[in-house]
Amino acid sequence: MNPCYQNPHLHSNVYTSPSPTTESHFITSMELSSSFTLSRTFSFSSSLTPIALQIQIFPKTPPPQLLSLRISAVAIDPPQEELPKNSPQRLLQELADRKRPYRRTPRTPPRNLILTPPLDNKRLANRLLNSPQLSLKSFPLLSSCLPFTQLNQGDMAWIEQHLLEVKQALGYPLEPSHTLGDDNNPARELDTLLYLAFQHESSQRSKVRHVRYGHSRLFFLGQYVLELAFAEFFLQRYPRESPASIRERVFGLIGKRNMPKWIKASSLHNLVFPYDDMDKLVRKEREATVKSVFWALFGAIYLCFGMPEVYRVLFEVFGMDPDAEECQPKLRRQLEDIDHVSAEFEGKISWQDMVAYKACSTIFWHNALFAHPRLFRACVPPGMHRFRGNIWDYDCKPQIMRVLGYPLKMTDRIPEITKARNIELDLGLQLCFLHPSKYKFDHPRFCYERLEYLGQKIQDLVMAERLLMKHLDAPGSWLQNKHRRFLMNKFCGRYLRYKNLHHFIIYSEEVQDAYQRSYRLKYPVNTAVQQALHGLSYAVYGKRDVRRLMFEVFDFEQIQPEPM
């Protein structure tokens, strides 16, 4: 039995101590004397009731043989009863608990977001000096599409294993490209660019950074090369058709659904999908991969050989047929075209004519009337000569030419060529500002639609080349986003309005009254006139004048707001 209950000298004192809190505490103190000679302290608590007991045994001072046992007990008020489920206080308390923010554990950032320390001066200098992008000074666009580091052993292994098959399929000589010509021949980089063209996102080598970036940059350039090539071809092949029909023809040939057919026709599908059967893949996976390789391939061909080789590969290697049934436009009501065309467009233009025309215009364009004379005659109808000497020709044209800096100073051996070029330029400018509402229903080609279609494609290619040469280490997706922001339709129209050229557009009376009531209707028209001016400058003076208009006259590289 516990000795505290056997002690005959037991005496207890019960008292209540005030508590500063709202709860009431009761402290019970008892001192017990015992005959033990040792002093011990016991402390225990019960799990049934919230009562804490502390027992301390110590001897009493008068009799040293006795022990004093002190027991302290603290009792806490029982917990309050739970509120009913429909109680407002309980609902408010649950709502407050739910509004408490969840404390998330911090995660480590991904490796691609961790900033690496900058290179020291020596390593940075070695990287720049050994970069292939700075090796070609005479071809800045070609050098900007090369990888920013030298190819490693894995890259060379792919080239030795598969490149001969690619060259044989495309009709190129099988010897290494660095043996072709001297240092001023861009075809010396053909092996490297063809290797990058086939390294799509699903390939094994795409995990390497310089390979992935090189493929994306070729992919970014190749899409605009194909668009411009087909725009020039179909504008000259069908001189009476509207741009809507031409767009349908282009989509029927190089739409993403038809690209796998061309890759398989050229026996290149085994290099794109070395481990899979292309016909058994999901359409989304098959088309996306083939599209990236197809566009990057023509970007590489354009950089090495130019536009004539693009036409040869399209129609000879891939076997595209512009008269095929799947690329014919939809049947629609056509306006009767009573105006005649140039005699050279009476028969259909073939791709061999385009190759010969491109080669001659590249070599002898300084002695010709225009940089692209047949393209100019396909977009500007001969009947435009009836507008020479009208009020717009004397009132508005001099102001427009002063803003655009026309005519450009060119040295021609025959003075009559300069005079004829300026006359045709005046007619082209008037066509650029001729809204379809004025004469289109009587004369379908007396409007800016065909020049607008050409100008849209050439400005896309010029801006893509500019971004590639300006940002050497940027991937193609970043360049695509920046390209889209620069050439948004609302910005193109804004550039024209900044120069106050939108006041010279020729409308019909009904459309003019409608546009006066709602000025926002003019915004698409301003964009169309801006693009038509680029198409005219490309046909008359070539790509260099398009660069002058975009970056010197209209300043297309203005700082634009970031997308929301």
Automatic annotation (TrEMBL):
<dbReference type="GO" id="GO:0004525">
    <property type="term" value="F:ribonuclease III activity"/>
</dbReference>
<comment type="subunit">
    <text>Interacts with RNA. Part of large ribonucleo-protein particles that contain CAF1 and/or CAF2.</text>
</comment>
<keyword id="KW-0507">mRNA processing</keyword>
<dbReference type="Pfam" id="PF14622">
    <property type="entry name" value="Ribonucleas_3_3"/>
</dbReference>
<feature type="domain" description="RNase III">
    <location>
        <begin position="163"/>
        <end position="306"/>
    </location>
</feature>
<keyword id="KW-0687">Ribonucleoprotein</keyword>
<dbReference type="GO" id="GO:0005634">
    <property type="term" value="C:nucleus"/>
</dbReference>
<feature type="compositionally biased region" description="Polar residues">
    <location>
        <begin position="9"/>
        <end position="22"/>
    </location>
</feature>
<comment type="function">
    <text>Binds specific group II introns in chloroplasts and facilitates their splicing. Acts on both subgroup IIA and subgroup IIB introns. The substrates of the subgroup II also require the CRM domain proteins CAF1 or CAF2. Binds both single-stranded and double-stranded RNA non-specifically, but lacks endonuclease activity. Required for plastid ribosome biogenesis.</text>
</comment>
<dbReference type="InterPro" id="IPR036389">
    <property type="entry name" value="RNase_III_sf"/>
</dbReference>
<keyword id="KW-0677">Repeat</keyword>
<dbReference type="GO" id="GO:1990904">
    <property type="term" value="C:ribonucleoprotein complex"/>
</dbReference>
<feature type="region of interest" description="Disordered">
    <location>
        <begin position="1"/>
        <end position="22"/>
    </location>
</feature>
<keyword id="KW-0150">Chloroplast</keyword>
<keyword id="KW-0809">Transit peptide</keyword>
<dbReference type="GO" id="GO:0008380">
    <property type="term" value="P:RNA splicing"/>
</dbReference>
<dbReference type="GO" id="GO:0006397">
    <property type="term" value="P:mRNA processing"/>
</dbReference>
<keyword id="KW-0694">RNA-binding</keyword>
<dbReference type="GO" id="GO:0003725">
    <property type="term" value="F:double-stranded RNA binding"/>
</dbReference>
<protein>
    <recommendedName>
        <fullName>Ribonuclease III domain-containing protein RNC1, chloroplastic</fullName>
    </recommendedName>
</protein>
<dbReference type="InterPro" id="IPR000999">
    <property type="entry name" value="RNase_III_dom"/>
</dbReference>
<keyword id="KW-0934">Plastid</keyword>
<dbReference type="GO" id="GO:0010468">
    <property type="term" value="P:regulation of gene expression"/>
</dbReference>
<dbReference type="GO" id="GO:0009507">
    <property type="term" value="C:chloroplast"/>
</dbReference>
<keyword id="KW-0508">mRNA splicing</keyword>
